[in-house]
Structure formats: structure tokens, C-alpha cells
Amino acid sequence: MPSAKVTPRDWATWRTIQLQTRRRDGSWVATPVSLVVVDGHGYFRTYDAAGKYKRLRNFPEVRVAPSTLRGRPVGPVREGRARALRGSEARIASEALARRYPVLHGWMVPWMHRRKGWTTVHYELTLADVD
Prior knowledge:
By secondary structure, the protein is an alpha+beta fold. The chain is built from 4 helices and 7 strands. The protein has helices at 8-13, 51-58, 87-100, 104-116; strands at 16-22, 28-34, 36-38, 41-47, 61-66, 78-84, 120-127. A hairpin with a 5-residue loop joins strand 1 (16-22) and strand 2. Helix 3 (87-100) crosses helix 4. The mean pLDDT is 91.
């Protein structure tokens, strides 16, 4: 259990998080993802062939922690939920990610998803203990 609640200001400074998604057998799988927070809403993206996408279809409950680029947690784990976005909501998330990470999410990730024929899926992340 975390010792203190996360404030919106703290959460907005996180650049990479360790996202833990649940398998059908109940075990958790950790993956580092880039995070952007806009008006108190956290956003991240993945693609439709990724394991985390498949796990999130079954179980929207997640665990997250601020982490290094390689996914090593540098803070306490928090409970949360991820919700897939469509239409204008997904566009807001895409533009916010591209602004914060112009090379990675403005160019490289969209190019790779197009090249591989993957569909990009954006998620809104809600933490249970954000004030």
C-alpha cells in the first residue's frame, strides 16, 4: 500500500512508467511505457498485436510505478485502470504524446506502426489515489 497519495503535479512529472497488466492466470506482466498527463488525465499508447493490448482487453485493472526507460521502478506501485480511447479522445492522446516526445512518439512509433501494419491504440490511465 502506498504511503502517500500522488498529487497531479507529481504524476505529471513521470515520463516513463512500469505498466503492469494481468494475465488470465492472475500473474502480472510489467512493461515500460511513455506517459503524458494532460489536465489530470494520463495517456499511453501501444499497438494491437502487443501482449499488453490483449491483456488490457480482458482486465483493465493495472498497476503502475514511475520507472526508468528500461522499466526499473523508482517509486511505489499504484493501482489504476486503463481505458481504450477512440476518435477525438485518441487524437488528443496522440497529439499530447507527440508534443512531449517529438522524436519517439511524433515520428518513430507512428512510422513503425504504419510500416508493420499495426493499429495504434491509445489508453487513458486513471490512478486510484491521485488527489
